[in-house]
TrEMBL record, chain A:
Belongs to the CENP-W/WIP1 family. GO terms for biological process: cell division; chromosome segregation; kinetochore assembly; mitotic cell cycle. InterPro entries: CENP-W, CENP-W/WIP1, Histone-fold. SUPFAM superfamilies: Histone-fold. One of its GO terms (molecular function) is protein heterodimerization activity. Heterodimer with CENPT; this dimer coassembles with CENPS-CENPX heterodimers at centromeres to form the tetrameric CENP-T-W-S-X complex, which is a subcomplex of the large constitutive centromere-associated network (CCAN, also known as the interphase centromere complex or ICEN). Interacts with NPM1. The gene is CENPW. It is found in: Chromosome, Centromere, Kinetochore; Nucleus. Component of the CENPA-NAC (nucleosome-associated) complex, a complex that plays a central role in assembly of kinetochore proteins, mitotic progression and chromosome segregation. The CENPA-NAC complex recruits the CENPA-CAD (nucleosome distal) complex and may be involved in incorporation of newly synthesized CENPA into centromeres. Part of a nucleosome-associated complex that binds specifically to histone H3-containing nucleosomes at the centromere, as opposed to nucleosomes containing CENPA. This is Centromere protein W. The keyword Nucleotide-binding does not apply.
Amino acid sequence: MAVAATISQRKRIKRKAPRGFLRRVFKRRKPHLRLEASCDLLVHLNCLLFIRRLAEEARTDACKNKCGIIKDQHVLAAAKVMLKKSRG
Amino acid sequence: MADSDISDNEPTTRTLLRRVLDTEAPRTPRRRQSTRAGVQRTPLGTPFSMRLRSQTKTTAGRQPHRARSIGRLAHIQTRGQLKEQTPRTLLENILLTAPESSMVMPESVVKPVPAPQVVQFSRRESSPGSLELQLPELNASTTLAPGRLTSGRRKKRLRLSEFQQGVDQGLPLSQGPVTEPPGNTGASSLSSSLNLTFATPLLPQSVQRPGLARRPPTRRAVDVGIFLQDLQDTSVATALPGDRTPVATLPTDTVLEDTQPFSQPLIGRSPSVHHSLPYPSLSAERTVSRRTRSSGPGLQNNSPGKPAQFLAGKAEEVDALAMGFPNTSSSTSGEDGLEPLLGGVGEEVEERMEESMSLSEVKEAAGAQASARAEEPEAHTEVAEAEGSWGAIEEKEPEGSSGDKDTEARPELASSTPEFPRARQLEFLEPAPPTSTAVLSSEPLEPLSARLPTRVQTAGPRRRQDPYKMGLSHYAKLFSFYAKMPMEKKALEMVEKCLDKYFQRLCDDLDVFAAHAGRKTVRLEDLELLMRRQGLVTDRVSLHVLVEQHLPLEYRQLLIPCAFSGNTVFPAQ
């Protein structure tokens, strides 16, 4: 099919999603649940967006404190905010 | 060709080779004539120079080069002046490059010239002459005129000297050993320099061109004592318990309790693991606790099964010794037990285990295993067993000093655990001890999947955190990329912790959403709902937009339904 054809052209995917890792993590935590076929890709997308927002937040914190380096307290503060936001 | 009068007293390899070469019947007549002609012919200079070049390029022993040059020369000179690459030529080259026992042995030295044609020649003429005549023929002769002084015939020398001079002029590369003799010959012209041995002594070569000299391989004798010591150390450190090796008693005994007497060794291992690597043990315990939590009181069965899966799937390579094999075998057996155990375990047990796990983690990390054990014997035993069995899977070495403590824990666990896991454990352990012995015996020798036999043991505990940590660090790297600012290492670790918490939350939320929909499978709509609640997907920004923006094309094709030819849609909705 067209899908297969296009995929075969580019075998090396940049920014691969660690699908196995995600599935394993989910399975470990929720063994009674099952993940659908491409759900781990969306989970990966979710992680990417979370990390992106976290990084933005941490960068803002660091710049606020006039630090040229992101320190763990910046990250911690940013994480607190983000985890609150991503409560779902 | 009995001319091989290598009148060496001792039958050295060289002499034997020479004899072999001499006794063989090369293509004599042609070669002879050709050699003669070659000597007189000027064009020889070129091939000769080529030969020299090849010689210089290749030290004695680089036969392929010589062969190539020989081949080239053979093309140039149709006559068999140059030897094609034959075993004979190879042997000759060997003889050339190998140092002669004595430099000043004109007669005998001359003989050894490896060229069969030369030998033939020598028959015709006295040995020194053959040497000289051999010069043009020798393709790979290391030097033109290196050699010993031979008394020998003026006429041959003349020819040779002419040759040598021609070679000197023609020879573009004048590399030390090679050019020196020619230089000498040039200087001395008719002197005996031409009659220098073809096989220059190794020393000058090595001095001038150390890289080309043949050095005897430096092999250090294996110090068995040190090796054993290392084995012991690593075994102690990585809980590679040494019932085999006289390992020092493990200072810390993990809380691993095991109801089965067989599991003692398993538990013995884990203590060493914990003791030696507190931090990894912490994370390992965390992962183990997760595993155990998820598997419920599957305990030993689950833990061996899970870690076995983990390990087998993860890094067979890291697997110390032959762990991989027994692991896979045991994992298969363990997995069978997993299912029924999972079914049997209630959720409350899981929760309890969770709490105890968290507690036990902290305690074990602190080393207060005894106290932890006292407080939450069951949980600890489970964890310990999980770890121990995990360690057992990895190392498969029966225990050590922690055996007695394990026995204490075991009865506790025995009381709490159902019989099923015990049977499982027995089953699991049975293959373990026999395999462990085999494994241990092969440990030092067998690379198996282990890259380094001694170092594999240290990789054991590392394996626990590696897969999980690697995944987290993969995302942490993305964090540093998105931040576009320099970061501290501690900040990265903090990011990993946050990611861990995030994953927990994510899984819980997905669980709730799926349960709310009355499903046991998490579907795409659950994910979309989650993202909507997180504020990522809004009325303006749809999920497809996000997928298109952030995921590579391949994943996008998998996620977003698209119409294809033939009235098909992929992925099917």
